[in-house]
């Protein structure tokens, strides 16, 4: 056996929700390069088909496969009814990653109630739905690894992210408890805290992002999805609970753990500077 980060994933089955784009797609390719087979979940069929083709190019042996599943992660019934037969056919995955996620940044009163629900339903309940479908089977088997995507917005309140941050703080609470409950069953839990990452989601949100949000989050330069995916893969192989892709976000996390909500006084300095520069409506 080599060092953990050189370990192979041969014969492992990995499910990634949101695996047709961005961080999820990069991660799927890295997993394929290590020998894993993949189940990719998202809604759009055409994106899934393109992703399937790309992922299969990274295979290293002929026993590997990639299957796509078109499913809306927001509905528990849909997730359970769609994935159960998939698990009967291909087996219960060894690793399950909830990377599906959405964001709409704006000041609180400019985010509709429906948009609040959309973010919570996809980012948080998507994870609940997926984990409720798979965790009982992993507990029974006494092995498995579930991974959720948090964000720097899981532990600091950045201007413009009231809805998104709520969903990302929620996922952190869920994972903290699951980590504790699943330990006796040898089911691993990880949560990833990336800063801005260059993906279609970032391009989407940049269309509406308030200038203040842009300025504050711009303190940390966007990472590439490949970089984030490599760090996630290493974190999984090293069985890390918190996977922190970059040093700056790690520093921010450490500072916020030391200062508690007092971190927001430091953050205020950046926010107020931008507020005074652009005004409240920018
Ligand atoms: N990019 C960034 O700056 C950061 C991202 N993150 C988090 O990382 C994760 C991945 O983000 P990123 O790669 O940028 O996003 P992308 O927009 O590139 O990909 C999102 C994926 O989620 C899928 N998805 C969205 N809604 C649903 C749904 N209701 N049901 C099923 N699948 C869905 C999309 O496919 P489809 O639309 O076809 O369903 C797509 O495959 C998210 O949780 C995000 O919040 C965290 C920190 C920073
Ligand atoms: C020591 C104190 C220094 C304070 C500096 C503040 C730096 C904040 C950087 C946070 C960037 C991440 C934003 C969320 C990313 C995200 O999840 C979205 N892009 C979703 O798409």
UniProtKB/TrEMBL annotation:
<comment type="pathway">
    <text>Sphingolipid metabolism.</text>
</comment>
<dbReference type="GO" id="GO:0030148">
    <property type="term" value="P:sphingolipid biosynthetic process"/>
</dbReference>
<comment type="similarity">
    <text>Belongs to the short-chain dehydrogenases/reductases (SDR) family.</text>
</comment>
<dbReference type="InterPro" id="IPR036291">
    <property type="entry name" value="NAD(P)-bd_dom_sf"/>
</dbReference>
<dbReference type="InterPro" id="IPR020904">
    <property type="entry name" value="Sc_DH/Rdtase_CS"/>
</dbReference>
<dbReference type="GO" id="GO:0000166">
    <property type="term" value="F:nucleotide binding"/>
</dbReference>
<dbReference type="GO" id="GO:0016020">
    <property type="term" value="C:membrane"/>
</dbReference>
<dbReference type="InterPro" id="IPR057326">
    <property type="entry name" value="KR_dom"/>
</dbReference>
<dbReference type="InterPro" id="IPR002347">
    <property type="entry name" value="SDR_fam"/>
</dbReference>
<dbReference type="GO" id="GO:0047560">
    <property type="term" value="F:3-dehydrosphinganine reductase activity"/>
</dbReference>
<keyword id="KW-0547">Nucleotide-binding</keyword>
<keyword id="KW-0746">Sphingolipid metabolism</keyword>
<keyword id="KW-0256">Endoplasmic reticulum</keyword>
<keyword id="KW-0560">Oxidoreductase</keyword>
<feature type="domain" description="Ketoreductase">
    <location>
        <begin position="12"/>
        <end position="196"/>
    </location>
</feature>
<dbReference type="InterPro" id="IPR045022">
    <property type="entry name" value="KDSR-like"/>
</dbReference>
<keyword id="KW-0521">NADP</keyword>
<protein>
    <recommendedName>
        <fullName>3-dehydrosphinganine reductase</fullName>
        <ecNumber>1.1.1.102</ecNumber>
    </recommendedName>
</protein>
<comment type="pathway">
    <text>Lipid metabolism; sphingolipid metabolism.</text>
</comment>
<keyword id="KW-0443">Lipid metabolism</keyword>
<dbReference type="Pfam" id="PF00106">
    <property type="entry name" value="adh_short"/>
</dbReference>
<dbReference type="GO" id="GO:0006666">
    <property type="term" value="P:3-keto-sphinganine metabolic process"/>
</dbReference>
